[in-house]
Amino acid sequence: MTEQATRPPADNPTPPPHWEADIVAADGGTVHLRPICPEDADALTGLMDRSSDQTRYYRFFGPMKRLSQKDLHRFTHVDHVDRVAFVVLLGDQIVGVGRFDRYPDTDDAEVAFLVEDAHQGRGLGSVLLEHLAAAARERGIKRFVAEVLSQNSKMVRVFQDAGYKSERSYEDGVVHLTFPIDQTEDALAVSYEREQRSESRSIARLLTPSSVAVVGASNDVGKVGNAVLTDLLAYGFDGPIYPVNPGARHVRGVPAYADIESIPGDVDLAVLAVPAEEVAAVVEACRRKRVRGLVVISGGFGETGPDGRDAERRLVAAARASGMRVVGPNCLGIVNTDPAVRLNASLAPQIPGRGRVGFFAQSGALGIALLERAHSRKIGLSTFVSAGNRADVSGNDLLQYWATDPATEVVLLYLESFGNPRKFARLARIVGRTKPVVAVKSGRHVGITPGLAGTSVAVPEESVAALFASAGVIRVDTVAQLLDVGSLLAHQPLPAGSRVAVVGNSTAMGQLVADAVLEEGLELAHEAPVDIGVSGSPEAFRAALQDAVDDDEVDAVVAVFLPPLMAGSKEYGPSLREVAVGSAKPIVATFLSTEGIPPELAVPDEHGMPGRGSVPSFATPERAVIALAKVAEYARWRRRPVGELPELPDVDEEAGRAIVRAALGDSPAGRDLTDDELITLLAAYGVPLLGTQTVSDADGAVRAAKEIGYPVVLKSTAPWLRHRADLGGVRLDLIDDDAVRTAFTAIPSGDPVIVQEMAAPGVATVVEVVDDPSFGALVSFGVGGVATDLLGDRAYRTLPLTDLDAAELVRAPRAWPLLNGYRGSEPVDVAALEDLLLRVARLADDLPEVLRLRLEPVIVGPAKPWHGGRSLVVAGGTCTVGPPTARVDPGPRRMRSPV
């Protein structure tokens, strides 16, 4: 670093806590990143000693063997403002360091790195650059400057590939790079892509180990260590298995070792089945052994209370600092059915065959039941992970892995909570575009379980629904539905539409199916089900099915076959299967009331499991139709274009920001905006409120009414009366001074009163933005009125809102027909409502300090000129601002905190 860039450190500087993070490196291992401190002098010297002459030459532009005491002091004493440095640690060793030094009195800073040779190629330079850039933005720095020797091509690529637009120049063998460090879409996309590769590889390291140690293996059949080792051996793991038990020479006939460090070979994966109080010592031994991953079956951690959560945090911190990911604790384990791996590091003795479904479950006990049911229904799995307390590895990590795993085509999730809901929504939306994600989320009416309290956030039910809807996640209500939908997706194609043909041999059952089809929002392709009769032959059954499949007016087929009163009923199965094999349309069946895929309906794949074209059978026709309806809705979401974010060139973001900044300037903790402030804020985003004044006496009300122009409305500002015409809080259509005086006197409560322009008749609606601290803002829409409030008839979507999202949001409430010409009324201007939603969403996205915004009533009329040339007016609103919560810069890559 040049002398020009240095600056004396401040006294006793303290860096922000969020500058410290665990990171997944490019190879899937983990490291720890934190600001440098004076105590790092010896470790920094060690880094220099372990680095090659070339690495030191590239960093310091000369043959520097060791740092002088002066340089060492300067590098380890920084002010965390103009001079910032981060170190990357693996265990106690510093394996990389990066720093920036601001040029005096500028917005520019020089940046430089040094990464130990043994750890080059792990993406640590890119991670350091991301975190340094984030810290620099916080300190008001706008550009980085880097001087790199031209032969140091790796470092040049680190800067060029970061997503920033750099300017390059050459002089005397040195590449001079200058680039702005704003978090652009390109830079964010690069960060997300690197995050996906790294986290995917970290899960691959767990699921594809070359060797496994079972710590706590036992010959006692009643112990967990015996069950884990038994399952590993029985499933035929393709690699060495090392039982660890200090009191046994052999466990289940396999030579045992006193501790993990006594094992002669490398250990990729350690499965821990020891008491909770022994886990910390085992993790330390695994660190010395350079184990790559841990599956902690042991309980006694977060699920036991605060002390257990603290032990859990220490467990994860120690493992990550040593390069290891952790599944668990208190988990069932992991499974990989790949014939080249055959890993069953779990407590589940019954493993489904090889298939195309990836399965994640938080619950260990339920995980066993889920695997047993999947096995009985012939649903093949690619991989399975039970995360238990989910202290480290979570469903998000598995989504990253399955996103690019060629063996996984369908993702099933059993979720009890969210660790990072915003990330889940982003990942699920990406994965869902190519692979369906099906989720059952428990805990709708109860809180988070104790074992997950330390690593979870509470998400309201409406937020969960909006998150799933926006991300294209197929939400199911029960575990049975999870497997129903998963089986259908794994074996049948997606429907091109919602038109369903019903073919069967029972009129009564056909009618039940038809009712279910309409009940689930699907369409009947024909007026009546096709009934071949109880005595219909297999040939007739096949012909009817083929006709339905060949019909251009049919998108899916439900086949209902009940056993006729004669022998040979199973001869009908091959007819159904043969039609399904050649069909591009999905076929579901209620075949002999069986559940799963009976042999007659299976098309075996290379592993002997039911493959593509196999027909799933359901015990009842209603379950078959429910599964088909959910798949059809997903197919519609996937066909839908992604949508576009409108430009809205008339928006004045800076004017809106000024209002929020001023409000927080006098009330840093947050407050409600005044009516005048809200009017100005909304006007900046092209959302006009009706002419409004707040008064405190009858004379003031009359003066305000004359200024606004008759007719006017009077509204109480008391929260319990503000929109309650039935309680006298709202007085409409006041046409003169006397009417205003009378109305003012009649309004109860004595609070100030709003005088407002009277809107033309129309449909009252409500638009709201609510900040969810866990993952950001929700935009909601509904038709106004006591009845719709009582029924909770509101639709929700997450930010950002595209034009297609806005169109769906307007049409989502059950009261939508009231806007679309119900009983002969004139349809309202839906386009104006969509435009309003887009503007409100843009406001919420631009200004994360807006914690709550409610526009009520929003009155919308016909598309023709209606109220002063407008078809939509906003007659009232409230807004609360405060310190931003989740809707902030997502920041550089980091693992979820083990707290």
Descriptors for this entry?
alpha/beta; Aminopeptidase; Rossmann fold; seven-stranded mixed beta sheet; 25 helices; flat; disordered N terminus
* N/C terminus separation: 37 Å
User: Into which percent range does the helicity of residues fall?
Assistant: 25-40%
Q: How many structural domains can be distinguished in the coordinates?
A: 5
Mean pLDDT: 90
Query: What structural category characterises the helix and strand content?
Result: alpha/beta
Give a quick account of the main beta sheet: strands, pairing sense, barrel closure.
Answer: 8 strands, mixed
Would you count the extended β strands for me? Answer: 38
**Total number of helical segments?**
25
Overall 3D form: flat
How are the elements arranged and paired?
Layout: E1 21-24, E2 30-35, H1 41-50, H2 53-60, H3 69-76, E3 83-90, E4 93-102, E5 108-115, H4 124-138, E6 143-149, H5 153-160, E7 167-171, E8 174-180, H6 185-207, E9 212-215, H7 224-235, E10 241-244, E11 250-251, E12 254-255, E13 269-272, H8 276-289, E14 293-296, H9 306-321, E15 325-327, E16 333-336, E17 343-346, E18 354-361, H10 364-376, E19 381-386, H11 395-403, E20 410-415, H12 421-432, E21 437-441, H13 461-471, E22 474-476, H14 479-491, E23 499-504, H15 507-519, E24 523-524, E25 530-531, H16 538-550, E26 556-561, H17 572-581, E27 587-591, H18 621-639, H19 653-666, E28 671-672, H20 675-684, E29 692-695, H21 698-708, E30 712-716, E31 730-734, H22 737-746, E32 753-757, E33 763-772, E34 776-783, H23 786-790, E35 795-798, H24 803-811, H25 830-846, E36 850-860, E37 872-874, E38 877-881
Parallel strand pairs: 5-6, 9-10, 9-13, 13-14, 14-15, 18-19, 18-20, 20-21, 21-22, 23-24, 23-25, 23-26, 26-27
Antiparallel strand pairs: 1-2, 2-3, 3-4, 4-5, 6-8, 7-8, 11-12, 16-17, 16-19, 28-38, 29-32, 30-31, 30-32, 33-34, 33-36, 34-35, 36-37, 36-38
